[in-house]
Amino acid sequence: MLFNNYVFGPVYSRRLGLSLGLNIFPKNKKYCSYNCIYCECGWTNDIINYNEFPNPEDIINELEQKLKNINENDIDVITFAGNGEPTLHPQFDKIVDAVIFLRNKYIPSKKIALLSNSSTINKPDIIKAIKKLEMPIMKLDVGDETLYKIINQPLIKINNTGFKEIVEGLKKLGNNCIIQTIFLRGKINDEYFDNTEQTNLLKWINILEQINPKQVMIYPIDRKTPLKEIEKIDCKTLNEIGYMLKEKGIPVMVVC
């Protein structure tokens, strides 16, 4: 599921409502620092050609044309999403500033969201840009490095940030961020994984308490995944996990 436009939608999002998507990647090509086994964009190539990333002016011009012709009531949020990890764009911070400017000009009542895998959170310019957004939604799928490598499969050639560094970066964002977690179980290379298992949940919740996010969004897989042997987690289990967070005083949105 790849996008061939820089601006797409509005599309209905389970978590965000009517979202005007912003794809700051090459059209119909995925660039990411992870190779998540559940990614709707498919498997990731571990080579990035930064010369292929679109010029910020082309992205911003397309966004402005869209905003000129849209009713403010037709969308709920502008969302950095698209074909991979948005913060990999070498001019991500400049694009963020330009998007904020256009939002303020055309639809000032709407928020700007970011869907990020958190892998670049150790970079000062990225953290600075992320803090300017009202809804930075940052990935944290697991509670330890072992499961992180199984489910998220970080690509060292693209980004060598370790799990502990990611956690430390998320702590710096703290209440400025929303944590997103997808729950799933299955088998890869004959190895069984399950991030709903109690040991992982307790580690994950402990990390969340340290981060102190403004909200946690938990949800199951909803689309076709590149790894076939994945089981969708039922609503009962997700609600039980949500209850565990509420018991700790952590605001949670459960999306089934």
| Biggest sheet architecture | 10 strands, mixed
Low-confidence residue ranges = none
Mean pLDDT reading: 91
> What does the oligomeric state look like here?
single chain
- Under CATH, the homologous superfamily reads Aldolase class I
Tally of helical segments: 7
What's the domain count?
1
Name of the CATH first level: Alpha Beta
CATH architecture: Alpha-Beta Barrel
Report the radius of gyration as a whole number of Å.
18 Å
Shape: globular
Please describe what this structure looks like.
The chain is of the alpha/beta class. It has one domain: Aldolase class I (TIM Barrel, Alpha-Beta Barrel). Helices cover 31% and strands 21% of the residues. It has helices at residues 56-68, 92-106, 124-130, 145-151, 163-173, 198-211, 235-247, and strands spanning 7-13, 17-22, 77-80, 111-116, 135-139, 178-188, 191-194, 215-220, 230-232, 252-254. Strands 1, 2, 3, 4, 5, 6, 7, 8, 9 and 10 form a 10-stranded mixed β-sheet that branches. Helix 1 (56-68) runs parallel beside helix 2 (92-106) and helix 2 packs parallel to helix 3. The radius of gyration is 18 Å and the shape is globular.
